[in-house]
Amino acid sequence: MSSAARAAAAPRRAPFRFWHEAILMALLAALLIGARVVAPDFVLVDTQRELLLHVWETALLTLPMTLIIITGGIDLSVGSAMALCAVVLGLAHEAGVPPFAATSLALAAGLAAGALNGLFVSRAQVHPLLVTLATLAAFRGVAEGVSRGRPISGFGEGFTALARQQFLGIPAPAVIFILCAVLAAVVLARTPLGLSLYAIGHNETASRYSGIRVDRIKLLLYSLSGLAAGLAAVLFVARRNTAKADVGQGIELEVIAMVVLGGTSIFGGRGSIFGTLLGILLIHETREFVSWHWNRDELNLIVLGILLILSVLLHRFVSVREREAS
């Protein structure tokens, strides 16, 4: 990468750089304090540990989504890819394939699905919104067709134990997410690849002229997104002991909401893994509290919409402050 591209890609050191994250932390703290007053049991450690078991598959999908959106792209097909991988895992299990091999097939299916998106985006130069909107329907349709819409269960104690396995008291899915998040954060903040992602998001044409291999990077990112969908499908099936074509339905909206709420600009060129983590926690805790206190799951869609609007207003507020400070 040229020095000019590095300068363009480097995050600005404005005094208001961390305002977005600070506001999200304040909102999260206010939510937990309010929950402590209204429903004290909600903030108990045992309760939170139980509720967090539901978030790790979604959280995994936010990591490659953050990288993709930083480049100015998007992947709407993650939920459908997750369903396809779950069905592949289920059919392999029915065919008598050993658990490790069946898991490998599910991951390979996710990688192939993501690579297909990446090829259309990078080689055919089709806008990622159109590509992934098409594959959103296609992957789900294939999953429905090959499984005939029936659930597949009975994976056995050895496989489902994956979701209950713990390391130093931390559930295995959480450990997997933490390791992936640390790796993504290091790549994004400390490597030339991370700088290239910001550069592509700021100006893709200038990045190409600067020698950045934009097409190769896009193919890599969408492939990683598909692989994450495969891993999320494996963890979901292990937790629920059921593989079905409706797995992950609507999850893409929640994933994108978490990333955007965390401060990643939908226009590209801005974002961080730490911000995404805050977005995950804020949306997860808000939705769980709504279900806990009012016991009405339909309110979650309203809450998700409000949080999305809030993320847009936060981004606009922080952008204005940064322009005033620069």
Summarize, please.
This protein has 326 residues and is an all-alpha fold.
| Shape assignment | globular
Poorly predicted segments: 7-15
Number of helices: 15
Roughly what is the average pLDDT, rounded to an integer? 88
Task: Give the topology string: H per helix, E per strand.
Answer: HHHHHHHEHEEHHHHEHHH
Number of separate structural domains: 1
Number of strands: 4
CATH class term: Mainly Alpha
Protein described:
The protein has a single domain (16-325), classed as ABC transporter involved in vitamin B12 uptake, BtuC. The protein has helices at 3-9, 19-38, 45-52, 56-70, 78-94, 99-122, 128-147, 157-164, 172-190, 192-202, 204-209, 214-240, 251-261, 273-294, 299-325, and strands at 152-153, 166-167, 170-171, 242-243. Helix 9 crosses helix 10 (192-202) and helix 13 packs across helix 14. The radius of gyration is 20 Å and the shape is globular. The chain is built from 15 helices and four strands. With 326 residues, it is mainly α. It has a two-stranded antiparallel ribbon with strand order 1-4. Strands 2-3 form a two-stranded antiparallel ribbon. A hairpin with a 2-residue loop joins strand 2 and strand 3 (170-171). It comes from uncultured Armatimonadetes bacterium. Its main location: membrane. One of its GO terms (molecular function) is transmembrane transporter activity. It is a multi-pass membrane protein.
